[in-house]
Design brief:
The structure holds 2 protein chains of 2 kinds. By secondary structure, chain A is α+β, with helices and mostly antiparallel strands. In chain A, 31% of the residues lie in helices and 21% in strands. Chain A contains 13 helices and 10 strands. Chain B has 5 helices and 10 strands. The longest helix of chain B has 13 residues. Classes of the chains: A alpha+beta, B alpha/beta. Chains A and B meet through helix 5, helix 6 and helix 8 of A and strand 9 and strand 10 of B. The complex binds protoporphyrin IX containing FE.
Chain lengths: 346, 201
């Protein structure tokens, strides 16, 4: 894919928007006309050309602007990157995974030359070039995870596996849906998922953890998760909630289509070779409802999903204040027809 | 006993003597003292001889709260005026402790939190620490916005003692920070603050 990178913002004047191609490939997460939790994990295998699944790491038209937003967040709040000391090997594993994927799949943008432990990395869109010694953090301007994640879309956490559990012992989060990395670092799978309603009782997390503990090298998996966000804001962190929370009361019947965004996270998990840790990437895709409803099937289905979402989840996802106005606005797209079965994107 | 509301909220199963440990370090406040005294009845003198007790005695009220501990004939009984001074000593003690030392903490939750947090920084596995909650339900709360810790929180919502925001005190708990999470309660409609209730007396 020969991508043109857009010059746009995810804060202040919010100039972010999707091209027609990006609207078409948007990962609409609902495969039926109602909502329910499930252990929706599938192999992270290559999808059709041009789709978000074409490559393991998806670099899209928002790449440069996205990375600029990350740099702004990190400048204000360095605690968005955390790594406990025993995670250094996993950091290098991650750097290798991302550099090799990005250079292989986007050779026009990224180049990696390896000569033993001497690595040479070129990132053309961001105009970055470094020669470093793999395994020696002093030869990079940041620790390996931060170095590569300043150049890769999506947040990431690195999970250490021990005591039959996964421990969030490192990560970087600048575009998270209202959870705090700083607070959650050091927690295990059940603990960091503690605030999630309903799923614990339904056994979702027990099953998911069991599955992930057995995750194999070379067999990554993925799932989609979603929420809604007012304005195309990437940094919806709890740290800054006292600044962006007011956005939620700005939605009116007139501005729904422009303000309300569906936020879908493509979450992928890889077993890492040296550390036996797991890398968990959380890549957020944003789409304003005006863009989404250009596909009637999606508009209709979203309307129906929002009718069936349990109240606990409405509260948890923080959409209480604008749910009604959004549903009313979407109603005009629901012509009562059946929607096609299964996912509505390639 | 504290029931776990959500899965990050720690539970404190109660003190039980580990008779195999080479030495014991016990941290208690006035309420936790009684949990230790009850456990002490079930062990022999040998156990007590290898036990160091760190006691935060709290404000004076006429009685000597350390007296029942002294009556046990402990070799090492250290009495502290405040939790802060106690934790500083614990930190030093753990840095010279050997393998085979068993750690016990009993009392209010801030005390247990700080003992566990301090122990974690010395590489102690949290689940190896014997804990028992006694006394007040007051909480340590970390403001997610300014990251300041507000001590001895008894109400919900509660004011951040650093940045002044009114915080919803959640049950989400971080062992590493040793605190519950506080999140601005009127972020969406500034000034819309629900009734302040004494939830954690
Ligand atoms: C091991 C890697 C994973 C990490 C690091 C992770 C992390 C998180 C975090 C930080 C949250 C937000 C919790 C909060 O509100 O504070 C969350 C929510 C959630 N996670 Fe995970 N998660 C992982 C894997 C999974 C898997 C495999 C599942 C599959 C069932 C899952 C299901 C969920 C669900 C259902 C939510 C609630 C989201 C919503 O309804 O909006 N997670 N996760």
């Amino acid at each position: 894919m020969n991508t043109m990178f857009k010059d746009e913002t995810f804060r202040d004047d919010f100039t972010f928007s999707n091209s027609p191609a990006a609207i078409k490939r948007f990962p609409f997460p609902f495969w039926e006309d109602k909502y329910r939790y499930s252990v929706n994990i599938e192999p992270h295998v290559a999808g059709p050309k041009g789709s978000i699944y074409e490559f393991p790491i998806d670099i899209d038209e928002h790449y440069v602007a996205d990375m600029r937003d990350r740099a702004l967040v990190l400048k204000e709040d360095p605690l968005r990157v955390q790594a406990l000391p025993h995670m250094m090997l996993a950091q290098w594993d991650l750097l290798e995974l991302l550099m090799t994927s990005m250079a292989r799949d986007y050779p026009e943008h990224f180049t990696l030359e390896r000569n033993g432990d001497e690595w040479h990395w070129i990132n053309r869109p961001l105009k970055i070039e470094n020669t470093f010694r793999f395994g020696n953090a002093a030869t990079l301007p940041y620790e390996p995870m931060e170095y590569i994640m300043r150049q890769c879309q999506g947040d990431i956490t690195l999970l250490d596996q021990r005591e039959n559990n996964l421990w969030m012992d490192a990560g970087i989060a600048t575009s998270q849906a209202d959870w705090s990395l700083d607070f959650d670092v050091g927690m295990n799978f059940m603990e960091w998922h503690a605030p999630v309603p309903l799923a614990h009782q339904q056994g979702v997390f027990d099953r998911a953890l069991k599955f992930l503990l057995a995750l194999q090298l070379g067999k990554p998996v993925r799932r989609l998760n979603w929420t809604m966000t007012i304005n195309p804001r990437l940094d919806t962190s709890p740290e800054n909630y006292h600044k962006w929370g007011v956005d939620r009361v700005t939605v009116t019947p007139e501005n729904v289509g422009d303000k309300v965004h569906l936020r879908v996270e493509l979450q992928a998990l890889w077993r890492l070779p040296r550390s036996n840790a797991i890398a968990f990437s959380i890549r957020a895709y944003l789409i304003k409802l005006n863009e989404l409803v250009t596909d009637l099937d999606k508009a209709r289905r979203l309307h129906r999903v929002l009718q069936t979402i349990p109240p606990e989840l409405v509260g948890y996802k923080g959409i209480t204040r604008y749910l009604d106005v959004t549903r009313d606005w979407l109603a005009k797209y629901d012509d009562g027809k059946p929607t096609p079965v299964g996912f509505l994107f390639q | 006993m504290i029931e776990p509301a959500i899965k990050s909220r720690p539970v404190y199963p109660g003190l039980k003597p580990d008779r195999c440990a080479k030495s014991n370090v016990v941290v208690v406040d006035k309420d936790g003292r009684d949990a230790f005294l009850e456990m002490a009845k079930t062990v022999d003198d040998g156990f007590l001889r290898k036990t160091t007790v760190l006691f935060v005695k709290g404000p004076p009220n006429g009685h000597d709260p350390a007296a029942p501990l002294e009556a046990l004939g402990l070799v090492n009984l250290w009495v502290f005026p405040s939790l802060e001074t106690l934790i500083a000593r614990l930190d030093g003690l753990l840095s010279i402790s050997r393998m085979g030392t068993r750690l016990y903490a009993a009392g209010n939750e801030p005390l247990i939190s700080l003992v566990v947090k301090t122990a974690l920084s010395h590489g102690v596995v949290h689940s190896s620490i014997m804990t028992e909650h006694r006394g007040s339900l007051r909480r340590r709360v970390q403001c997610v916005h300014c990251k300041g810790i507000t001590e001895n929180v008894t109400t919900n919502p509660a004011k951040c003692s650093h940045c002044g925001l009114m915080l919803l005190v959640r049950d989400h708990y971080s062992r590493r920070i040793g605190a519950f999470q506080g999140v601005c309660i009127d972020a969406e409609v500034p000034g819309e603050i629900p009734e302040i209730k004494a939830e954690f007396l």
